[in-house]
């Protein structure tokens, strides 16, 4: 399976000079946890909800811009990257997302930990393993 099969093509972007509080508001309004930071047409960084202080907006955030808090350079993968490699990158670097680029290097999407978890939850293998665990648990507790 490849990244393009699970990535979100709708990428929310923000300019580096935008106030961090505005970026936080945009995340909340659009129900996303990551914004891709652009400088013109170029990828400049990524900012996460965690970078902005978590789910609650700190009062001190008003002094900062996205450029002050973003991660740069961005860890990217291509649309053709195997999903296992993308997951290993996210785990190995403790990342919540990866920016996905096309063959010409332009932003094509984003893949998040939530995308990977959704995929696992949808797979028949996962569902059957979950059912087997329930049966084993019932047997262990003497239930029928």
Structural notes for this entry:
The protein is built from five helices and six strands, in the order E-H-E-E-H-E-H-E-E-H-H. The chain is of the alpha/beta class.
Task: Describe the secondary structure blueprint for this structure.
Layout: E1 13-15, H1 20-30, E2 34-39, E3 42-48, H2 66-69, E4 76-78, H3 83-93, E5 97-101, E6 107-112, H4 113-122, H5 124-140
Parallel strand pairs: 1-2, 4-5
Antiparallel strand pairs: 2-3, 5-6
List keywords for this structure.
21% strand; CBS-domain; three-stranded mixed sheet; 144 residues; 37% helix; alpha/beta
Kindly state the number of beta strands: 6
How does the major sheet shape up?
A: 3 strands, mixed
Q: Please count the helical segments.
A: 5
Tell me the structural class.
Answer: alpha/beta
User: Regions with pLDDT < 50 over 5+ consecutive residues?
Assistant: none
Mean pLDDT: 85
Give the helices and strands as they follow along the chain.
Answer: EHEEHEHEEHH
Shape verdict:
globular
**CATH homologous superfamily, by name?**
CBS-domain
Instruction: Give the CATH topology.
Output: CBS-domain
Strand content: 15-25%
CATH architecture field: Roll
The first-level CATH class name? Alpha Beta
* Helical coverage, percent range: 25-40%
Instruction: Describe the strand arrangement of the main beta sheet, using strand numbers.
Output: 1-2-3
Radius of gyration: 19 Å
Distance between the termini: 38 Å
User: How many separate domains?
Assistant: 1
